[in-house]
Amino acid sequence: MKDEGQKLLGFVLAVVVVGLVFAVFGSRMLGAAAGPENELITILKRLEQPGETFDSSGTLKGQRVNYQRLSVIVAPDLQSATVSGTLDFTGTKDDVAISSLGFERIRFVKKDDVWKPIDGPAPRLNAILRALERRRRALQAGDIPQADGLDVQEAERYRRLEQRQFKVEAWYIRSEKEGVDVSEDYHLVGRLPERPVDEKATRRLSLVEDARGEFLFPRGLL
Q1: Using an 8 Å Cβ cutoff, are 213 and 140 in contact?
Q2: Measured distance CA(189)–CA(163) in Å, rounded
Q3: H/E element holding 140?
Q4: Residue-level pLDDT at 6
């Protein structure tokens, strides 16, 4: 009877240990068993929960996120990979509303048996937002360089504006491999010598990607 009790206790302990191991390592074990392709797609799909962050500073937060049409290329050494597809993103960056639909190419590297995105889970969207944020700062400062296609009159108005406050309320982004179109809702407040300015409007912008993967405004900031 004593031996049977010890056997039963040993069996229960073994079940508990197996359960704990699976709870800690189970998802990784299943991912590895399913292959790196499914494991990488699973990593991205887990980010579709509301409140996940999509940049290193934690300021780009998703509310409704959907990765679609994902394809995976894994390197022969199984230590790096690239996932391509589309990202349908609705969320915020600081106090700016963000809505974006576009192409993404996410590079992963495997370190300590864990896949990590090298440039984050939305590198193209973040590169577009960096360009838009640089533009926002330039308009706030009235620092508008000359460019082919620039609206010269509008640029001069920004430069002349005193007590300038330029606030972006929303960016609506559509990005394709060939280029990016953005609708910007903004609020501009200030004073010209002849009159005060207080306008809310929407402006359409176009961006192109350079060889470094950064985005530029080929027709100027305005």
Answers
A1: no
A2: 8
A3: helix 123-141
A4: 53
